[in-house]
Amino acid sequence: MSVNDLELKTFKAIIECIEEGSEKPSRAAIAKELGLSRTTASNYVNKLISSDILEELDSESQGRGRPGKPLTLSSSKRYAIGAFFDESDWYLSVVNLQGNPIENLHYPIERMTIDSFIQVLIGGIQEIQKKYGSQLLPAIGIGSPGVIDRKTGTIIKAVDLGWRDIPLGRIVLQQTGFSCYILNRYRATGLGEAHHGQGQGVKDFIFIGIGTGMGSAIFIDGKLMFTTNIHTGGIGHIIVDPHGPYCSCGRKGCALPLASTDALIANVLKSLKENPSLAYTPLAQRYSTEKTVTLQEIMQAAEDGDAFARQSVHTVADPMCQIIGHLITIINPKKIVLGGPMATTGTYYVNYIKEKVTNDYLTPEIPIVQGSMDVYTGARGAASLVTKRVVELTFHTPDTWYQEQ
Ligand SMILES: [Zn+2]
Fold first, then answer.
1. Contact assessment for residue 96 and residue 51, using Cβ atoms and an 8 Å cutoff
2. What are the pLDDT digits (tens) for 268-285?
């Protein structure tokens, strides 16, 4: 069904009314809210119901008169896919139009190359396409590593992985037929936190993700901030120590080589090799048998009170405290949510940052909390880029594979 611009706008306004209202509106409530006649509103609602976008719930009798049936977004007829990449795994989530997960799928990448990164994702999408068919909205939201050109769907660079100019969106479209909405993986996680996690009900908050890479998602008045087409929230390349090590971006002293999970593990391994006095620490014992230590082991040792592990965590947490202190000074959000592997495995790390930022940066006391432990939060956040376009994706065939976000 093809519709004109006015119809498109009205459909979107009806959906907004349903999503933003504190209770599920009836047709009469929508007519009142949008200044439409009851008949016109009802006609629009009927079209949205017959397109499987809305559903009508059983009416709840409230006082006298014929009660209106509450309307909601469809819970079981149309679905969207979101994908999120982390370390060496793709996490895909199939969500309903209300954003609730119907199915979560995990696809590990056995040998990490650019080609397998793309092909494992495409394999996952195709498996879902086979199962859900035309019930899927014809697009996918993707939380990818790196700096993304969101208009062309290209990963411009992912310095932690050594990648440049990967036309991910174009390849996914060619092989699956689905348009792509691609954004940095930590911005996708921020969207997941906003809709379903620690950001729910908070209009102004900042999500910061720390793993092998870093990124942030700044929400102002409930909206994810986008400034340029390409780069918003790339905190990994804020210079925190001008005399610090070289970053793979070519500059000296960025946060990334000082504060990533790779930096933490490398620092710990270096100290264990060079410092015999650490031989009796839990991490040294682990290292002597396994010849390596994991992020989880370091965070657990810090949690258990081991002084060496705690000092190692402080070294990578201090640059983040600087960045968070500055972000709070500039933006004054209501909440900071810390996520990504570093923060979700490290309760001690999060608590240390919370205490240091509050004590050292003359900031108003703002809650600094650990993000969701659910590995599918980023996939659900990416899927929200698709569900929010349900009207366009249903009534307009997308003719380009990139879209304004
Ligand atoms: Zn850098």
1. no
2. 999 999 988 888 888 998
